[in-house]
Amino acid sequence: MDSDQTPQKPRFAGSRARVGSHTLDWPVEYGGRTYTEIHLARLTASDVAAFQASLAKLAPDAIVHCPIYRDADGALIPDAVMDALDDDDAFELEKKVADFLPRRFRGAPDGVSGPQTGATTEPSSEK
């Protein structure tokens, strides 16, 4: 490589969507701006590492939003905006977010816990 050339930044190949969006039914005003849409962006390995490092510095009972929520320019949506969302908008985002979260942040799939044989569990107390 010539010294005049700058190295290319890696980019994702393929056609799978790495960004989605949700138009808010109940827009939120904050910091002189009106948020009408929230984008969901898949995280890279470095995004996850930075998020995990930031979690280690927080109090155990702190409420933290995953850095998946972005504006149209790619900037993080402020926590105050996420906390202020109308519950219907928050619910719609939760339904969409699973497609964009890394597997390590997804909850256990339905049916993973409980009896592995398909049998029902015994009552935990006697009658």
In short:
This is Phage tail assembly chaperone protein, E, or 41 or 14. The protein is α+β, with helices and mostly antiparallel strands and 127 residues long.
Give a verbal description of the structure.
Pfam families: Phage_TAC_7. Residues 104-127 are annotated as: Disordered. With 127 residues, this protein is an alpha+beta fold. It has a domain at 19-102. It is 23% helix and 18% strand. The chain contains three helices and three strands; from the N terminus they run ββαβαα. It has a three-stranded antiparallel beta sheet. Strand 1 (19-30) and strand 2 form a beta hairpin. The chain is globular and about 50 Å long.
Question: What sequence of helices (H) and strands (E) makes up the elements?
Answer: EEHEHH
Q: What low-confidence regions span 5 or more consecutive residues with pLDDT below 50?
A: 111-120
Helix and strand content put the structural class at alpha+beta
Number of helices: 3
Number of DSSP strand runs: 3
Name the helicity range.
10-25%
The biggest sheet, with number of strands, parallel, antiparallel or mixed sense and barrel status, is:
3 strands, antiparallel
Strand percentage: 15-25%
Shape by Cα distribution: globular
Strand numbers in spatial order across the main sheet: 1-2-3
- Taking all residues together, what is the mean pLDDT? 82
Q: What gyration radius follows from the Cα positions, in whole Å?
A: 20 Å
Distance separating the two termini:
78 Å
Region (Disordered): 104-127
Protein name: Phage tail assembly chaperone protein, E, or 41 or 14
Organism: Rhodoblastus acidophilus
InterPro entries: Phage_tail_E/E
